[in-house]
Design brief:
With about 70 residues, the chain is an alpha+beta fold. It has 3 helices and 5 strands.
């Protein structure tokens, strides 16, 4: 699990941009003790894996932990 700051570093974007992507359903994130954390498995080579957005959208009804 990566913090928002760490996810931002992986993607080469700002923390605010990470938050915007999460809110738009483009990054998978789960709440842990009030903070958003991002599963590291969704990132490769400075980008999100192909198809992550489609999985998130397709499982919109499921909890983030299930996705």
């Amino acid at each position: 699990m990566l913090s928002a700051e760490d996810a931002a570093k992986v993607l080469g974007i700002s923390r605010q941009a990470v938050d915007k992507r999460r809110a738009a359903g483009k990054l998978l994130a789960v709440r842990v003790r009030g903070d958003w954390h991002y599963p590291a498995a969704q990132f490769r080579d400075g980008e999100t894996l192909p198809g992550i957005e489609e999985v998130i959208v397709g499982m919109r009804e499921a909890s983030p932990w299930s996705v």
